Structures are given as structure tokens and as C-alpha cells.
């Protein structure tokens, strides 16, 4: 079975590699010629642990192109284009509409299944189906993978959700089942449902996780006020088996485009339908507010805070990724700079540092912590949750630093060890 995948973003690349590994012939299309050129030379255009190695393994089964004309060769076409939000928080569906029109214009034989992988609001699959015409079968099948854990998430998902239009042909259902047989045989829940239910599942799942984060973040502010410890408090909650422990870390708030964009899109979908998403609106507000809370914490520490010479560690929206979109670290630096702070930044991932230099030339990034003159550093701020941060030579840093103060926006350091060395340690 020959399969096409449109767009070479995160979801594409994992999907393409997985299908190629299972022996399917995969062709990937992107309208970005530079990206396709790089991929033809087997340069992994984005960073994800193990991606380079896996790409090298499946070379035989993956091809790249910018030409929609080649679509005629395949039975199934995955559409995994980007669906960002616009200024009014609505999902921008331009890319998905354009891809649908291009498919329609370039296909001679209509016996094709179009699988929408992108996260799309209610009604989009119907729109795509209307653009494509009655001979195309549209199936919605979004992805739940996380960056940094994407490969693992893809091979061992909690569930596979396949969303059909009510009157989908039996033949189409069989084709998709064949494609996902690997998961079905492993007894991974395989859910078939209708478009309307389906389109909401991805938004509901992401928004629920974001709700857990905002809930614990809001509590962290009260805990701080009354002298309680939010990490111990979170443990006390999740030891109740009905409350699962993940996403109960009170940090700087959630980043990247998925949670912020899907939460905002869900708020908009409520209002478009004449309803108010009270909980989800509060989730979004709390996330904005958490960054200000952390900033106030820094600001209120000393009355006459000298904003100069701050070292902020880590830049990406979470560890082991080069993705800077909606990174809390970047949002933090922008607020610090507004206050006149001179900030030095560091991220252990070279690709993340490269991206900062390209997209945020105003940020002063260093390549090696060894090059930092700690005698000129007043504060250290931790913005991304790298566990490996605990392995730095803190005693050595303490012996050199101008003011031994650490603000840990990810509660990641071993506070007893850090305090024992002599640092003033402030966490969420
Ligand atoms: C998320 C969903 O997890 C995934 O299922 C979906 O398909 C895409 O969006 P991702 O954005 O890659 O994945 O990362 P995730 O690990 O979920 O973290 C999102 C953000 O939440 C990060 O900024 C992280 O730092 C933050 N976070 C996570 C918290 O602030 N607290 C937590 O307890 C967990």
C-alpha cells in the first residue's frame, strides 16, 4: 500500500517513519523546497531524540517531493498540516483548506482515503469533505504525541482514535484497520467514532491536561502565601489513585503551541456555539498569570533589585527539544528585558541555541557554561525542567557567583543540596 503524507512537521515525521518501518511505501510532500532538499539528503529538519537514527534506518521506504502530481500513485493520503490560531483565537484553517484544494486539483483517480492528522475544530472534516467532493473518503485521526517523547508515544500510544464520517464505506474502514493492525494486535484501544465526537477528543484531552497544570499552578500561589510546599501537596493529592500523578507539576505554566493553541481554540468553539467555557477560560488566564507570579517573586525578593546580569538557564519550551514556540523561558526573558535586565541565556541543546540566534537575535546566548564569568552574575533563573541541571558543579558556581541566589521556575533542583552549599533558593 502506498501512502502519502502532506507536510513534514512533527506529526508527519513520526507517522512517516513508523509506516516506513512497518514496510509501507511512504512519500512525503512539503511545499517548502529547502526542507525537502534537506530531507532528500537525510538531514532531520527538526530535533527529536532518535529521529536521525530512525530516519537512516528507513531510507529505502521513504521518498520526498514538492509535487502534488505524484499523489495519484497512492491509496491513502495523510494531511498533517499546521493549524495555528489567529489573533481572535480561532483556528486558522487556511493550510488545511489549501492542501485539500491541491489534492482535488491534482488527483485523476478519486478512489482515495484522506486522513486528517491535524488538530481541527468541529466541522473541519465536513468542510474538507465538501471541498474534495463525494468521491473522497475523509477520515480524521489526530495524533497525541509529545515532543521529546514523540517516538515512544507513537509506538506505544494509550489509544488510537480513528474518526469516521457516519456513512464511511466499509472498504475504507478496512483499509485503516489494516494500516493500524500493529496496534490492534497489541490490544491498544482502537476507537472508531463519528466526526463531531472525534473532533472534540483531541481538544478535550489537551485542555484537560492543561487544566491539571493550571489547577496546581493556582494552588501554588496560595501555598506560597500560607507557607505550604506545593510539591509535597501535589504528592498528597495524586497518591489518591483516582487522581493520576502526571501534569501536576507547578511550574512556570505550560508552553508550546499545542496546549496554548488548543485551549484557546476550545474557548472559541464554546463561544461560537453560544456557550461559555468558564473552566477553560480560567485555565488560560491562570497560565498567563503564573509567569507574572514568578516574575513578582523575583522582583519582590529585594527592594532595590539590580536587574543586571541574570543568567537564565534553558530556553526551549521543555527539555530535549529545539522548539521555542510559546516557550515560557522566552516569555520570561522578554519580561525581564522590559525591566531592563541584562540576561545571559543557555540551553544544552545546540539546535535550540541555533534557533534562538535565528529567531531571537536580541537574546544573548552562550554555547558553554564554562565561559560564564560567574563573578558578574547576580542571579540564576531556571526556566526549563532539565533533570541534568542537578549535575552541574554547584559548589564551584557558588564559589564564584556574585550573588548566590537561584530562582527555580521548575522546582527541579535538589533543594536540600543547594541550600546546604549556601545558595538562597527560591522555587515555585
Ligand atoms: C502535548 C500533549 O501532551 C500531547 O498529547 C499532544 O499531542 C501535544 O501537546 P507537548 O506540548 O509536546 O505535548 O508537551 P507536554 O509534555 O505535554 O508539555 C506541555 C507543556 O506543559 C510544557 O511546557 C511543560 O513544561 C508543561 N507542563 C507539563 C507543566 O507545566 N507541568 C506539568 O506537570 C507537565
Secondary-structure blueprint:
Blueprint: E1 2-6, H1 10-21, E2 25-29, H2 33-40, H3 51-57, E3 62-65, E4 76-79, H4 94-106, E5 113-116, H5 124-132, E6 137-140, H6 150-155, E7 160-164, H7 170-179, H8 181-185, E8 190-194, H9 195-226, H10 230-238, H11 258-272, H12 278-299, E9 310-313, H13 328-338, E10 343-346, H14 350-359, E11 364-365, E12 379-382, H15 394-400, E13 405-408, H16 415-421, E14 424-427
Parallel strand pairs: 1-2, 1-4, 2-3, 4-5, 5-6, 7-8, 9-10, 9-12, 10-11, 12-13, 13-14
Antiparallel strand pairs: 6-7
Helix pairs in contact: 4-5, 9-11, 9-12, 11-12
Bound molecules: uridine-5'-diphosphate-xylopyranose (UDX).
Description:
With 428 residues, the protein is α/β, with parallel strands linked by helices. It folds into two domains: 2-188, NAD(P)-binding Rossmann-like Domain (Rossmann fold, 3-Layer(aba) Sandwich), CATH 3.40.50.720; 302-427, Rossmann fold (3-Layer(aba) Sandwich), CATH 3.40.50. 43% of the residues lie in helices and 14% in strands. The chain contains 16 helices and 14 strands. The strands form two sheets. Strands 3-2-1-4-5-6-7-8 form an eight-stranded mixed β-sheet, sandwiched between helices. Strands 11-10-9-12-13-14 form a six-stranded parallel β-sheet, with helices on both faces. Helix 15 (394-400) links the parallel strand 12 and strand 13 (405-408). Helix 11 (258-272) packs across helix 12 (278-299). The longest helix has 32 residues, at 195-226. It is globular. The N and C termini lie far apart (52 Å). The model has no long low-confidence stretch (mean pLDDT 86). The structure holds uridine-5'-diphosphate-xylopyranose. Residues 143-147, 206, 209, 213, 247-249, 251, 254-256, 258-259, 317-318 line the site of uridine-5'-diphosphate-xylopyranose.
Amino acid at each position: 500500500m502506498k501512502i502519502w503524507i502532506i507536510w513534514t512537521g512533527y506529526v508527519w515525521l513520526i507517522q512517516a517513519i513508523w509506516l516506513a518501518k512497518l514496510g509501507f511505501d511512504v512519500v512525503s510532500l512539503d511545499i517548502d523546497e529547502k526542507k525537502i532538499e534537506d530531507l532528500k539528503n537525510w538531514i532531520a529538519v527538526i530535533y527529536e531524540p532518535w529521529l536521525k537514527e530512525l530516519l537512516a534506518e528507513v531510507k529505502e521506504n521513504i521518498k520526498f517531493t514538492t509535487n502534488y502530481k505524484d499523489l495519484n500513485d497512492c491509496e491513502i493520503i495523510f494531511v498533517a498540516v499546521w493549524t495555528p490560531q489567529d489573533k481572535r483565537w480561532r483556528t486558522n484553517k487556511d493550510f488545511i483548506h489549501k492542501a485539500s484544494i491541491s489534492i482535488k486539483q491534482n488527483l485523476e483517480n478519486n478512489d482515495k482515503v484522506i486522513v486528517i492528522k491535524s488538530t481541527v475544530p468541529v466541522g473541519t472534516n465536513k468542510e474538507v469533505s465538501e471541498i474534495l467532493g463525494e468521491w473522497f473518503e475523509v477520515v480524521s485521526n489526530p495524533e497525541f504525541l509529545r515532543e521529546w517523547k514523540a517516538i515512544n508515544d507513537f509506538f506505544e500510544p494509550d489509544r488510537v482514535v480513528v474518526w469516521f464520517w457516519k456513512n464511511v464505506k466499509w472498504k475504507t474502514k478496512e483499509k485503516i484497520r489494516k494500516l493500524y493492525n500493529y496496534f490492534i494486535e497489541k490490544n491498544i484501544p482502537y476507537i472508531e467514532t463519528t466526526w463531531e465526537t472525534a473532533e472534540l477528543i483531541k481538544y478535550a484531552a489537551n485542555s484537560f491536561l492543561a487544566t491539571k497544570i493550571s489547577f496546581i499552578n493556582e494552588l501554588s500561589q496560595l501555598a506560597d502565601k500560607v507557607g505550604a510546599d506545593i510539591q509535597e501537596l501535589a504528592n498528597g493529592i495524586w497518591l489518591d489513585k483516582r487522581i493520576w500523578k502526571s501534569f501536576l507539576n507547578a511550574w512556570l505554566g505550560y508552553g508550546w503551541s499545542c496546549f496554548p493553541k488548543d485551549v484557546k481554540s476550545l474557548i472559541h468553539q464554546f463561544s461560537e456555539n453560544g456557550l461559555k467555557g468558564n473552566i477553560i477560560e480560567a485555565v488560560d488566564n491562570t497560565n498567563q498569570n503564573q509567569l507574572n507570579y514568578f516574575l513578582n517573586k523575583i522582583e519582590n525578593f529585594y527592594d532595590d533589585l539590580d536587574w543586571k546580569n541574570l543568567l537564565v538557564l534553558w530556553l526551549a519550551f521543555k527539555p530535549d527539544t529545539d522548539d521555542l514556540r510559546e516557550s515560557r523561558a522566552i516569555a520570561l526573558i522578554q519580561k525581564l528585558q522590559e525591566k531592563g535586565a541584562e540576561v545571559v541565556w543557555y540551553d544544552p541543546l545546540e539546535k535550540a541555541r541555533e534557533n534562538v540566534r535565528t529567531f531571537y537575535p536580541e537574546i544573548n546566548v552562550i554555547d558553554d557554561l564554562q565561559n560564564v564569568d560567574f563573578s558578574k552574575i547576580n542571579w540564576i533563573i531556571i526556566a526549563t525542567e532539565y533533570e541534568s541541571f542537578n549535575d552541574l558543579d554547584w559548589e564551584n558556581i557558588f564559589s564564584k557567583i556574585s550573588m548566590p541566589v537561584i530562582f527555580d521556575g521548575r522546582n527541579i533542583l535538589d533543594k536540600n543540596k543547594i541550600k546546604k552549599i549556601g545558595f538562597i533558593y527560591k522555587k515555585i
